[in-house]
Write a structure and sequence with these properties.
GO molecular function: DNA binding; DNA-binding transcription factor activity
Order of helices and strands: HHHEEHEHEEEEHEEEEHEHEEEH
Structural class: alpha/beta
Number of strands: 15
Distance between the termini: 60 Å
Function: Transcriptional regulator of the ttuABCDE tartrate utilization operon.
CATH superfamily of the largest domain: Periplasmic binding protein-like II
Strand order of the largest sheet: 4-3-5-15-6
InterPro entries: LysR-type_TF_proteobact-type, LysR_HTH_N, LysR_subst-bd, WH-like_DNA-bd_sf, WH_DNA-bd_sf
Oligomer: single chain
Family: Belongs to the LysR transcriptional regulatory family.
Low-confidence stretches: 300-308
CATH topology of the largest domain: D-Maltodextrin-Binding Protein, domain 2
Keywords: DNA-binding, Transcription, Transcription regulation
Mean pLDDT: 83
Helix content: 25-40%
Number of domains: 3
């Protein structure tokens, strides 16, 4: 098979990104007809149909989707080669695939994505909002943002980019219903503790004791949830005591919807960690987004949620 013209590949990708031959051609300085002929030439060389065409829409075939993904990899490799000669000067392009914790992603990451997309018009972003710990490499993510989960996989690089205080809290209705609030760690054994748990992990509560050592709390756990947002909602509903980071509950504490429990106890901080596959050079699309997060969050120690 003759070698494919690289320009035809770029035209094909521009058509896919734009969603039409007209817009894709314009992005490459071509007419609709020239863009269409380039895609036809590419399909002829490959011996496979890449696009399903109707009078109104275009969609990728299975073969087209695979080829488009490989095209993104080629462009990322070009950027990596440029970065190797000029520091991290390569321009971000292609698709950035993120997996982020649900509540943190919506409250903190989404506003940063708005800035990122405005700054780099050649970037697309796909985000999975979930508290489930995905296999980053197997699931094809470029970057994961986790709360307090460093890399145990040697194929991954981890970096702490921000730290938030965590606080024990409960609703006024729960505290009123259960009489005396806890006055020391051991008192938690008589209370309902709202614990984060899923198939891969179960949150343990620990606090720094008087001698500086860490003490595990022995709380009663009748309700376990796999979402920090759901734990917050359960606490607001009076279902128990929760241990949650400031970015999620600061507004509720200020408004009196939640009250801090055992405020003198020092709990583990919630560390915000980025995880990405270990590579000699980091693709510009990943590097620039991590830099943006560090710039925005690196000196932050708390962030409030103003309303439920």
């Amino acid at each position: 098979m003759p070698r494919t013209n690289l320009n035809d590949i770029l035209i094909f990708m521009a058509v896919v990104d734009a969603g039409s031959f007209i817009a894709g051609g314009q992005a490459m300085g071509l007419s609709r007809s020239a863009a269409g002929k380039a895609v036809i030439r590419l399909e002829g060389r490959l011996g496979a149909r890449l696009l399903n065409r109707t009078t109104r829409t275009l969609s990728l075939t299975d073969e087209g989707r695979v080829f488009y993904e490989r095209g993104l990899q080629i462009l990322a490799s070009v950027d990596e080669a440029e970065a190797s000669l000029g520091g991290q000067s390569g321009l971000p392009r292609g698709i950035l695939r993120l997996t982020v914790p649900d509540a943190f992603g919506r409250l903190i990451v989404l506003p940063l994505l708005e800035k990122y997309l405005r700054a780099w018009p050649d970037i697309q972003v796909e985000v999975s909002f979930t508290d489930h710990l995905s296999d980053i490499i197997e699931d094809g993510f470029d970057l994961a943002i986790r709360i307090g989960a460093a890399a145990s996989d040697t194929r991954l690089v981890s970096r702490v980019i921000a730290t938030y205080k965590t606080r024990l809290c409960a609703s006024p209705s729960y505290l009123a219903e259960h009489g005396e609030p806890p006055r020391e760690i051991d008192d938690l054994a008589a209370h309902d503790c709202l614990i984060f748990a899923n198939r891969n992990q179960r949150q343990g509560w620990r606090f720094r004791g008087k001698g500086g050592s860490w003490i595990k709390a022995q709380g009663r756990s009748r309700l376990r949830l796999d979402s920090a947002e759901a734990i917050r909602d359960a606490a607001l509903a009076g279902l128990g005591i929760a241990l949650l980071p400031d970015f999620l509950i600061a507004g509720d504490l200020a408004a009196g919807r939640l009250r801090q429990v055992l405020p003198d106890l020092e709990a583990d901080d919630a560390k915000i960690v980025t995880l990405y596959p270990d590579k000699r050079l980091l693709e510009p699309r990943i590097h620039r987004f991590v830099d943006l997060m560090v710039e925005a969050l690196g000196h932050e120690r708390s962030d409030a949620r103003s309303s439920p």
